[in-house]
Design a protein that fits this description.
With 143 residues, this protein is α+β, with helices and mostly antiparallel strands. The protein folds into two domains: 11-74, Orthogonal Bundle (Arc Repressor Mutant, subunit A), CATH 1.10.10; 81-133, no CATH class. The chain has helices at residues 11-24, 37-44, 48-60, 98-104; strands at residues 64-67, 71-74, 81-85, 90-94, 111-115, 121-125, 129-133. It has a three-stranded antiparallel β-sheet, with no helix packed on it. A two-stranded antiparallel ribbon has the order 1-2. A two-stranded parallel sheet has the order 3-7.
Length: 143
């Protein structure tokens, strides 16, 4: 787990994102206990309060549950959404609006905005979205 204190992203959001990524990758499967505040404090120097904010983000997203006296455990894996990109599509990242935070359950994580060539826009949570670029098919003879 790597914390970048110079990134401008709050440390608690970095921790939440890093743990969420471990859950998505299967490194922390359902039922696994996530590191404790004491472990993070000792290994990364992060205060327990900062770590608690990260756990709150994960709990609000429905990914973990805290059992008093036992620890915090993974209860769900976010489903990755794959967005197919075609020639002419444009992807930008930005912070979500209040409505997007609620609709996409992003918390303070960024969103990806896919703008299609016709101007249509789609907004996705950057936390659980993977964009796949599709190569344009070669032109058929006579086209």
């Amino acid at each position: 787990m790597q914390i970048d204190y110079e990134s401008g992203e709050p440390v608690y959001l970095q921790i939440a994102r890093l743990i969420r990524d471990q859950i998505i990758k299967g490194e922390l499967p359902v039922g696994a206990q996530i590191p404790s505040g004491n472990e993070i404090h000792q290994s990364k120097g992060v205060t327990r309060m900062t770590y608690q904010h990260a756990v709150d983000q994960l709990r609000d997203a429905g990914l973990v549950v805290t059992r008093p006296g036992r620890g915090t455990f993974v209860i769900a894996v976010p489903v990755l959404q794959v967005v197919d990109l075609r020639p002419g599509d444009r992807v930008t990242a930005r912070m979500p609006s209040e409505a997007e935070r609620t609709d996409l359950d992003t918390g303070l994580s960024p969103v990806l905005v896919v703008t299609r060539p016709n101007g249509a826009k789609q907004v996705f949570s950057a936390a659980v979205t993977v964009c796949e670029a599709k190569a344009s098919s070669p032109a058929e003879p006579g086209e």
